[in-house]
UniProtKB/TrEMBL annotation:
<dbReference type="InterPro" id="IPR001342">
    <property type="entry name" value="HDH_cat"/>
</dbReference>
<dbReference type="InterPro" id="IPR016204">
    <property type="entry name" value="HDH"/>
</dbReference>
<keyword id="KW-0486">Methionine biosynthesis</keyword>
<feature type="domain" description="ACT">
    <location>
        <begin position="351"/>
        <end position="436"/>
    </location>
</feature>
<keyword id="KW-0560">Oxidoreductase</keyword>
<comment type="pathway">
    <text>Amino-acid biosynthesis; L-threonine biosynthesis; L-threonine from L-aspartate: step 3/5.</text>
</comment>
<dbReference type="InterPro" id="IPR019811">
    <property type="entry name" value="HDH_CS"/>
</dbReference>
<keyword id="KW-0791">Threonine biosynthesis</keyword>
<dbReference type="Pfam" id="PF01842">
    <property type="entry name" value="ACT"/>
</dbReference>
<dbReference type="Pfam" id="PF03447">
    <property type="entry name" value="NAD_binding_3"/>
</dbReference>
<dbReference type="InterPro" id="IPR002912">
    <property type="entry name" value="ACT_dom"/>
</dbReference>
<keyword id="KW-0028">Amino-acid biosynthesis</keyword>
<protein>
    <recommendedName>
        <fullName>Homoserine dehydrogenase</fullName>
        <ecNumber>1.1.1.3</ecNumber>
    </recommendedName>
</protein>
<keyword id="KW-0521">NADP</keyword>
<dbReference type="Pfam" id="PF00742">
    <property type="entry name" value="Homoserine_dh"/>
</dbReference>
<comment type="similarity">
    <text>Belongs to the homoserine dehydrogenase family.</text>
</comment>
<dbReference type="InterPro" id="IPR045865">
    <property type="entry name" value="ACT-like_dom_sf"/>
</dbReference>
Length: 440
């Protein structure tokens, strides 16, 4: 009988325990896929006494995940500890150094140390698999690495954080504020007690860094990503987006440009008719623009124990086959060090919402500053306040009102320059809201 692949699982949270359940339930199917049985030999977690709903007495217990990685009874280490450094990094380094295969769901670790770990895996001739690190149960890593070699990818973008998508969906559909939706997301377990990593875009940025390397054959470069979160989005912005034919999503975007590979994470207006605009709630989606397949969109559960564990088990089955693939689709010495495309050179349409004083000449002053910066306006809308007590014969109250501009293609630098001058002219009562538009 073929010797089983002996697995050790470091980290027994929702995903780790789901991996054990799936392997118990699907062991025969996994063995058929991998060509040999898979046997969990050891586990590690911080609290040995915690009831996790699975029988752990059949496995060797390690208090230290790094000690589990060094065990001679383990061929493949599943790292589910989390974090870019500390125990997770020590565990993966230890496993690879000793010639153990590694399966991980740790996007932060890969975003920071991916190149180093890829080189180590290559030196030792072992797998470092990470399907579960991006978009949960969506097989986006396999798609980019294995299914699209005949394509030159020009752009990749997606909804990569379910927490943000849930919050924006609820805000739009129910007219709630960001704070109200965040509180509800925390109550339902969709958001952490400290939600900063999710709502300010850093989780999406780590995932985008991985996808960029796979899509464009470049060294992973998380520091090159422009990051902006969703905490400034208001119900008014969502209502205006609807009126203008858009929907607001937090997107991670990687794109080939004349100046290099552009990587950015920010709230984005997408046409309501686009595939990605239909993705609501905690669901994730990734769209790939390429020359042969044109547009390919993958949609599915981006988080959750079973969905993420499904990706982990798929990687374990691949490891069992004995096939070893380069981490980012190409050997590390062939990965390009792509020039960074500065965010100031980004070019596209913009939604700009200004809170201006409702008096003659304000709109003209704004339009003049935009024209001076060589920015063409596709539309301009003014939303007057109905709450003002007194108005002049033209319906103006002098109170702050919203002035919404939609621009044709303009650079980030020109938009920022124009807004700085508009502010200096005293035309706006509060900082402007700027949301980039991603066309189909």
């Amino acid at each position: 009988m073929t010797r089983p692949l002996r697995v050790g699982i470091a980290g027994l949270g929702t995903v780790g325990t789901s991996v054990i359940r799936i392997l118990d339930r699907q062991n025969e199917a996994v063995a058929q896929r991998g060509g040999r049985p898979v046997e969990v030999m050891a586990v590690s977690a911080r609290d040995r006494s915690k009831d996790r709903g699975v029988d752990l007495s059949r496995f060797a217990w390690f208090d230290s995940p790094a000690d589990l990685a060094r065990s001679a009874d383990v061929d493949c280490v599943v790292e589910l500890v989390g974090g870019a450094d500390g125990a997770a990094l020590e565990t993966v380094r230890a496993a690879l150094s000793l010639g153990r295969h590694v399966v991980t769901a740790n996007k932060a670790l890969l975003a920071k140390h991916g190149l180093e770990l890829a080189k180590l895996a290559e030196e030792k001739g072992v797998s470092l698999a990470f399907e579960a690190s991006v978009a949960g149960g969506i097989p986006i890593i396999k798609t980019l690495r294995e299914a699209l070699p005949a394509n030159r990818i020009s752009r990749l973008y997606g909804i990569l954080n379910g927490t943000c998508n849930y919050i924006l969906s609820r805000m739009e559909l129910e007219g709630l504020t960001f704070a109200e939706c965040l509180k509800d997301a925390q109550r339902l377990g969709y958001a952490e007690a400290d939600p900063t990593f999710d709502v300010e875009g850093f989780d999406t940025a780590h995932k985008l860094a991985i996808l960029t390397s796979l899509a464009f054959g470049t060294e992973i470069d998380a520091d090159a990503i422009y990051v902006e979160g969703i905490s400034s989005i208001t119900p008014l912005d969502l209502a205006m987006a609807k009126e203008l034919g858009f929907r607001i999503k937090l997107l991670g975007v990687a794109e080939r440009t004349k100046t290099g590979i552009e990587q950015r994470v920010h709230p984005t207006m997408v046409p309501r008719t686009s595939s990605i605009a239909q993705v609501m709630g905690v669901t994730n989606a990734v769209t790939i623009d390429a020359d042969a397949v044109r547009e390919l969109t993958l949609i599915g559960p981006g988080a959750g124990g079973d969905a993420t564990a499904s990706a982990v088990v798929a990687d374990i089955a691949d490891v069992a086959t004995g096939t070893v693939q380069p981490l980012f689709g190409s050997p590390t010495d062939r990965l390009e060090k792509a020039p960074r495309a500065p965010m100031q050179r980004h070019e596209g349409g913009y939604y700009v919402r200004l809170t201006v004083h409702d008096r003659p000449g304000v709109a003209a002053g704004v339009a003049t500053r935009m024209a001076e910066a060589d920015i063409s306006l596709e539309s301009i809308l003014q939303k007057r306040s109905e709450l003002a007590a007194t108005k002049d014969p033209h319906g103006r109250s002098g109170a702050p009102v919203s002035l919404v501009l939609i621009t044709y293609a303009a650079t980030e630098a020109s938009i920022r320059s124009a807004l700085e001058k508009i502010s200096g002219d005293g035309l706006i009562a509060e900082p402007p809201q700027v949301i980039r538009i991603e066309r189909e």
